[in-house]
């Protein structure tokens, strides 16, 4: 085998190797791109299902303007800054278990509360 034939064979081998690597990387990039769209589609579906569930829930607790004003005043007094109330969630009810109540009590006890005089 001559020097020119060896050089041509080496160049051909290099081109084939680079082509295989490029094709493999292109395939992996395509898979990642497909996973991205699949994830976005599944997230949109989960969000729409959650939104439907939230819209169909009935409000069983009594919520009035006086209660919201009292909670806002208490929060503003505690944080000593203007507060915007976006959501009020009542604790207790049907879904409260003894473990959940005990955990909330322990969490509240763990905070250091400054008592004003």
Explain this structure:
The protein has helices at 3-56, 65-79, 98-110. The chain is built from three helices and no strands. The model has no long low-confidence stretch (mean pLDDT 82). The chain folds into two domains: 1-57; 65-110, no CATH class. The chain is mainly alpha-helical and 117 residues long. The relative contact order is 0.04.
Order of helices and strands: HHH
Q: In total, how many domains does the architecture comprise?
A: 2
Structural class: mainly alpha
Could you tell me the number of beta strands? 0
Approximately how much helix is present in the residues?
over 70%
Low-confidence stretches: none
Distance between the termini: 100 Å
List keywords for this structure.
elongated, 117 residues, 2 domains, mainly alpha, 3 helices
Question: What does this entry show, briefly?
Answer:
The chain is an all-alpha fold and 117 residues long. The chain has helices at 3-56, 65-79, 98-110.
Topology overview:
Blueprint lengths: L2 H54 L8 H15 L18 H13 L7
